[in-house]
Structure formats: C-alpha cells, structure tokens
Specification:
The chain is α/β, with parallel strands linked by helices. It has five helices and six strands. It has helices spanning 12-21, 53-59, 73-81, 99-115, 128-146, and strands at residues 2-5, 26-30, 42-46, 67-69, 85-87, 93-94. A six-stranded mixed sheet has the order 3-2-1-4-5-6, sandwiched between helices. Helix 2 runs parallel beside helix 3 and helix 3 (73-81) packs antiparallel against helix 4 (99-115). The two termini are 14 Å apart. Pfam families: DUF188. This is UPF0178 protein SAMN04488003_11386.
Amino acid sequence: MIYVDADACPVKAEVERVGTRHKVRMAVVSNGGIRPSPNPLVETVVVPDGPDVADMWIADRAGPGDVVITGDIPLAARCVANGAQVLKHNGEALTPANIGNVLATRDLMADMRAADPFRQGGGRPFSKADRSRFLDALERALRSAKG
C-alpha cells in the first residue's frame, strides 16, 4: 500500500501513475479539497479537520511493506518506526539511519524561527529535478516493498 499525505503534496499524480503501473493500492489522505481519482486502486480518504488528524490516520496504518509519501517529519518518524518506507516529495528517503538527524534539524529550525519572528525563508521551489528524483526513488521503494 502507498499512503500519500496529500495536503500540499506536489507529486500526487506521479504517485498514482507509478502505483498503477505496479498495481499497488493507494490511500490519498487529506482534510478535504482533493479531487477523488476514478482509478480503482486509489482510495480518497477525507479525515476530519484538526491538527495532525491525517498524520495519525496514516501512522496508525502504515507498516512493513508500505510506502509513505510525506513532507511531515514527525509523521515520517512514526512511519519509519513502524517499519514503513518513507519518501519526501523530492525523493529523499527517510530511514532509521537518518530520521533522528532530520527530526533534530527540523526542531532546531523551528526554534530558530521562533527566536527570530522576522526571519523569512522557506524551502526552495519544487523543481523538475526534484520530481525526477522522486519518481526514481518511488520506483526503487516499490520494488523493494514487493521484495
């Protein structure tokens, strides 16, 4: 199963295309506002509004043999701990070997933003290279999950 944390996910179409080619079921999880896919392999899951409700839904279900697509680092940490493979939208794999450092960096950056409310910034724009890396990483993750 592929679980997609769909709110603000720039690679939903790519996940559906690759998942369909591999004949893998997909759950696209959001608080709403996502157009349901007619694809029989894609389940659109709309969870109630609330902080981290979609994340909890995914984390409660994802485990070994599953692939989770998310940019949410705390969700990624829970899914990695449950044995799922996790990919960020840019194709970066989050694993038991790197999730601790990624989580610590996220927390450090949050503390720095809180200490300096005028600090502007954010991530760099999503690029064609990111999309290409993601497609390659998803292909590898699905092959590994089928393993």
